[in-house]
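INFO worker-7 received task bundle
INFO bundle size: 2
INFO processing item 0
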Amino acid sequence: MSECETSLILVPGVELPVTEDRATQVLQYASRIFQITGRSKLALAACLHEIKEEEYWKNVAESFKSYVYTEFGYTESTVSALISVYTTMVENLAVDPESIKDIPWAKLAMLVPSITVENKDELLSVARDSTQNELKKYLKDLNGLHVTESKTSTGNKFTFTVNDDQAEVIKQAIDKATTMYEGRTDLPPGMIYETIFAEFLLADCEDPTEEHLVKSIAYLEKLHNVTISYEKNGE
């Protein structure tokens, strides 16, 4: 048995050796950790994640929903939030559990929809130093009506919120732009948005300068996957 198979859950104070009765061991540990107060619930979330994925609950209940309600008094939504905190922070973002065990899990749950590799240090710091209401306001501003730009491993991510009427207009614009690339399968998703924004910028130019001409040609070349050459007429 390899060394990585000898421990169960990578959270503070949780080292469960692999045994033939692993399911019983995890179920029992989840019950014990639930009684501990004043610390992060990441350990419990890690247990619940495995209990759900491996269906250990079948040993003690008719359903996972019944198990978590009977054992902990939790609804499925609460358990989903707990598991989401664990998978997001520990598995996806590789946050050291020891460094966030002092942050209430409710605050960590609030961060899940917004936290990324790039902003995790900032958001965790804000969560640690803010009240729950202050954190709520901070996240609301972060994901508010104005565009928020952040770097990702593959490029730039823009996030913005619109109302239903605005969403309908945006959907129509996306559908229209998509038809311009009919038959093209080599384009990244961002090209559709670039098409919409480029059209707006080019249409807004009141002075058709040389720079505007160069930009227009570059846009058309990209849009139609062609190369355009030109020469100026004599004055």
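INFO item 0 finished
INFO processing item 1
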Amino acid sequence: MILYERHKAPDALKLRFHIRDKFGNDITNSLDYDPATGVGHCYVPNSDAIIEYFKPQGYVEVDGHVNPSQEALDAIYQSVQSGLDPKVMEATIKKVEQDVRFNKGTEDNK
């Protein structure tokens, strides 16, 4: 899995970049999250402190895509930055996700 870092998302996506617990509730003030380990970091309001937290079985949703692969995440970021039509953007992201799944399946069979 990958570490999802909200601050690296394009500004247009930051409001659609959600780090959530296993119940679907947003993890408030979260900066990053690794769904594989359940470890993330968040800032403490009214402070410069950043603390580590542990929320197993949580997930990340970026523009409607749950725990996208690095390739899909890059495609989402590029689509938003280039101003693609939403239908074209969705088709591109779905194609990338299909390719990743297909390639992962062939690698497992080696």
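INFO item 1 finished
INFO post-check item 1: The first strand starts at residue 4 and ends at 5.
INFO post-check item 1: Residues 6 and 14 are 7 Å apart (CA to CA).
INFO worker-7 idle
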